[in-house]
Amino acid sequence: APGVSPGLPPPGLVSPVGLVVLEERRGPGPVLAALGGFIGVLVVLRPGMATLEPAALVVLLAAVCYATSIILVKRLTLTSSPAIIVIWMVLLQLPLGLALSLAQWRTPPMACLPWIVLLGVTGLSAHFAMAKALNLMDASIAIPIDFFRVPLIAVVGFMLYGESLETWVFVGALIIFASNYLAFRAEQKRPA
Predict the structure, then answer these.
(1) d(CA 133, CA 148)
(2) Residue 123: what are its φ and ψ, rounded to 5°?
(3) Helices (DSSP H) in the chain: which residue ranges?
(4) Whole-number Å distance between alpha carbons of 56 and 159
(5) How far, in Å, CA of 158 to CA of 164, rounded?
(6) Which of 69, 87, 140, 190 sits 20 to 30 Å CA-CA off 124?
(7) Hey, is 148 helix, strand or coil?
(8) Radius of gyration over alpha carbons of the chain, in Å?
């Protein structure tokens, strides 16, 4: 279908992968959203070589796995509904998660049950929302919006855990918001 891409790259690779390899729509909107989102995340995180640790390789591996799962979801949206995708995800991940957790299993107390249910509902809702977004729009538009997680996580860390909230978080959030806003405005002006 026109405007539907078969996959999705990880944050930071939206422009080259989503726009070139996946043959999504090319234009100023997706490029601006991808570039602005990536720059905004860099402003918030401000990565440096001094903080590079071996554990960072695990994070990079996690990003590749996340991108792979999103690519698969994007492909599945061409033939399946978001609800079916989430059901299959649960059916595949439940035995894998159970097998990996058995060695360290601790039965949670009943007082934790409402929190466990809340965690399950919000987790499934997030997966459904992402599958629905990928069903409705190009990955090169959906994923830059997902960049908003980075400044929002910083705010949650400040509110719940007393983490310091620096000016760079707000600057990065402003860059992400502005690039997405300008991208949507540019896409509205483009002929169909």
Answers:
(1) 15
(2) -65, -45
(3) 28-45, 55-76, 82-101, 113-136, 139-146, 149-161, 167-189
(4) 26
(5) 6
(6) 140
(7) coil
(8) 18
Q: Tokens for 98?
A: 């159970």
Which amino acid, residue 180? N
Q: What are the residues whose beta carbons fall under 8 Å from the beta carbon of 157, sequence distance 6 or more?
A: 163, 165
Q: Which residues of 169-184 are buried (b: 16+ CB within 10 A; e: fewer)?
A: beebbebbbebbeebe
Angle at 95 between CA 66 and CA 117, to 5 degrees: 80
CB distance 32 to 141 below 8 Å: no
C-alpha neighbours within 13 Å on the C-beta side of residue 160: 6
Instruction: Say how far apart CA 167 and CA 43 lie, in whole Å.
Output: 10
Tell me how far apart the terminal alpha carbons of the chain are, to the nearest angstrom.
14
Q: Which residue has the tokens 């080259």?
A: 16
